[in-house]
Design a protein that fits this description.
The protein is α/β, with parallel strands linked by helices and 698 residues long. Helices cover 50% and strands 12% of the residues.
């Protein structure tokens, strides 16, 4: 046996203890240990086997270190079949999480007991695959087809009480896993309980699998693993167990060879790597317990809500008592959502709104805050005024943060006497919901202030990405470019509605014009006016049709009309009949003859613009690694996760072909399509963006 599985005998019960910290992942040594342990128990005179995990969890899932490598025998399907086929009574005692392969191992045992806090699930579809060790065949037999489909196609985790109701586990009992497992196994032996191989249970009831498949595929916006998992569950209902297992393995291997699986694995690892910065190794963040928020609009209220839910106390500063009360109302409304979802209790709601939150109208109230975030109007002079006043009252060592989306953090820091304490913390709205946080590091930001920004992001449950200072940082700078690409296609003949549909079919949650309506067209209008005031490059292709919409008071969803008409509600998205005539008038004024675009060309141009600007952002050091760009677009801009991010998508497409397309577009529009030097360099060297990620990790 391997050291990863311990073996002991208590009377006629053999105990197999997983001891592969930190999460008892089902790596090669664990799989060998389970096979050897079952064989030893069978020759050792035991009547039953108890399997449990040492430490914080039962088997939490596959060993991520083996992802992408050729699997070594025995594989997990073989291990599960061997456990189930044992003539001995085999019991699992579960605590922590039994996910993916962990739940598949548990389902291959004959009985399952769990502590009340245990959680189980089959999240493989979130990695672009499906359960491949019998999960799609065994779970429907114990939980029923509909419940199994729900768990498998969503990848959600369920608590022990729900698992008990579904028949996934047989008993819940508090106590140490070893103790409750031994007692339960002893009870089963004394009762003469029979072995219960799941494979010998009746096949689950069929449903309309074609309808479920179509529905899941549509809901997945192009992601294929959930829909493919439906076909695997269908095999459980329609085929004998052995043939169903064979079909599951075929479908599993089909998914293993897809770009989507590779994109989701990239997203999985990048999400864990994005906050690990070599520059912060050994750097301690500053203490954080009390924060201030300046500005109680939608953004400021969202930031305050997130902070309160994370256990921080918050002082909300507004300019008048009425504005402060309005801000409190927004925060309370946000917390009501958490209350309705069961995230907090009524008592917790009361404590957060009446004790942890303080309203203020005087900057002096912020004198004891460890960190202050301003979330006021996006205008440089307004920001500078706020930071001048804040500098006068904040205590020494307090972190002063701006939530600006575009503005130069260096200029903001320069109005203070402590630029080393100033940082950008760019939240995304609604800030208590959106996962992305851009930590914008100015020229003189101190390392421990950067560490504090990342510590705050972690505490708030955010995906924090380090960004340098430029107009728009990482995300909004890239957004400005690919949105400009869409605007150019409009001038040349495409419609906003064709572009939105093509990109939603590609996998985006919303197309760029629907997103603009959601965010508010006045935001883009303000940016255009600012850039025109600063002086546009004479080669730029400017247009004013969107300005005309704004001049008419049409700012999108919040006013009921933008590119779309929302008279029937925010989800109606009926094309606004005023838009196309405005576009046609713009083309005529500029002497442009419209041409037809295919959906494929729309996607290719849009993505090429995104990749090219992303490469410039990495090449200039605004983003340190390609994965920083990918995580920014995934968590802040609706990029389809199963494609991994724009630079992972570019790698999968092939950089040489993409660069050739960009060069061909540059012949039409050299100002906009200037190829990124980094992209040209990678192609010349025969490397790709993932090579840069690996070099950064090394």
């Amino acid at each position: 046996m391997t050291d990863a599985i311990g073996y002991e005998r208590i009377g006629d019960i053999a105990i197999l203890k997983a001891q592969n910290p930190p999460v008892n992942a089902l790596g090669y040594d664990v799989r060998v240990g389970l096979m050897d342990g079952i064989a030893r128990a069978e020759t050792d005179g035991a009547k039953a086997v108890l399997i449990y995990g040492e430490g914080n969890t039962y088997f939490a899932g596959a060993d991520i270190r083996e992802f992408g490598q050729k699997p070594k025998a025995p594989g997990l399907p073989e291990v599960c079949d061997r456990i189930e086929a044992s003539p001995l009574l085999v019991v699992s005692a579960m605590h922590g999480t039994a996910l993916g392969g962990g739940l598949e191992v548990a389902l291959s045992t004959h009985y399952r007991i769990a502590v009340p806090s245990a959680r189980v699930g089959l999240p493989e579809v979130l990695l672009g695959i499906l359960p491949g060790a019998g999960g799609t065949q065994r779970l429907p037999r114990v939980a029923g087809t509909e419940a199994a489909l729900d768990l498998i196609i969503t990848g959600r985790h369920i608590k022990a009480d729900e698992a008990l109701k579904l028949g996934v586990i047989d008993r819940i009992e508090d106590g140490a896993p070893r103790d409750i497992g031994l007692a339960y196994t002893r009870e089963l032996l004394d009762q003469g309980a029979p072995r219960r191989p799941v494979s010998e249970m009746d096949a689950p009831a069929p449903v309309d699998f074609d309808a479920v498949y179509d529905s899941v595929l549509k809901k997945g916006r192009g992601q294929i693993s959930p829909a493919t998992a439906v076909r695997a569950v269908q095999a459980a209902a329609e085929l004998p167990f052995a043939e169903g297992m064979k079909r599951e393995r075929e479908l599993f291997m089909d998914l293993m060879n897809t770009d989507q699986r590779e994109g989701l694995i990239h997203a999985f690892f990048s999400e864990r790597a994005v906050g690990k910065l070599p520059e912060l190794k050994g750097v301690e963040p500053r203490p954080l317990s009390a924060i201030g928020v300046i500005g109680g609009g939608t953004m400021g209220a969202g930031i305050a809500t997130a902070a309160l839910l994370s256990g921080l106390t918050v002082t909300m500063l507004e300019m008048t008592p009425e504005a402060a009360e309005a801000a409190k109302g927004r925060i309370a409304g946000n917390l009501q959502g958490a209350l309705k979802r069961g995230k907090i209790s009524p008592e917790k709601f009361e404590a957060l709104t009446e004790k942890a939150l303080t309203l203020a109208t005087d900057y002096g109230a912020l004198k004891d805050a460890d960190l202050v975030i301003e979330a006021v109007f996006e205008e440089m002079e307004v920001k500078k005024k706020v930071f001048t006043q804040l500098d006068a009252v904040a205590k020494p060592g307090a972190v002063l943060a701006t939530n600006t989306s575009y503005l130069d953090v260096n200029q903001i820091a320069a109005v203070t006497s402590r630029p080393a304490d100033v940082i950008g913390l760019h939240f995304f709205s609604p800030a208590h919901v959106m996962k992305l946080l851009e930590v914008v590091v100015a020229d003189r930001t101190a390392p421990d202030v950067v560490a504090t920004g990342f510590a705050l992001g972690k505490r708030l449950g955010k995906i924090s990405v380090r960004a340098g200072v430029c107009d728009g940082f990482i995300g909004n700078r890239i957004l400005s470019t690919y949105r400009t690409c869409a605007d150019h296609m409009i001038l040349d003949g495409a419609s906003p509605y064709q572009i939105d549909k093509a990109l939603e079919d590609f996998g985006f949650a919303m197309g760029p014009f629907a997103v603009a309506d959601l965010a508010g067209l006045d935001i883009g209008w303000a940016v255009r006016k600012r850039k025109r005031a600063e002086g546009l490059d004479p080669r730029a292709r400017d247009s004013s049709y969107a300005d005309t919409l704004c001049e008419g008071g049409h700012f999108g969803q919040k006013t009921g009309k933008g590119y779309y008409d929302y008279a029937a509600g925010p989800r109606s998205r009926v094309p606004n009949p005023d838009v196309l005539p405005l576009i046609e008038a713009e083309r005529a004024a500029q002497g442009l003859a419209p041409r037809a675009f295919t959906d494929e060309e729309i996607v290719r141009r849009y993505m090429a613009a995104m990749v090219n600007e992303s490469a410039k952002v990495v090449g200039e050091g605004i983003a340190r690694r390609p994965l920083d760009v990918d995580m920014t677009l995934l968590f802040g801009y609706g990029f389809p996760r199963y494609r991994g991010g724009p630079l992972k998508w570019a790698d999968l497409q092939g950089l040489p072909g993409l660069l050739e397309d960009i060069k061909s577009y540059a012949k039409e529009d050299p100002y906009f399509w200037e190829p990124a030097p980094l992209l040209e360099q990678l192609v010349a060297e025969g490397r790709n963006f993932d090579d840069l990620n690996k070099e950064a990790a090394a």
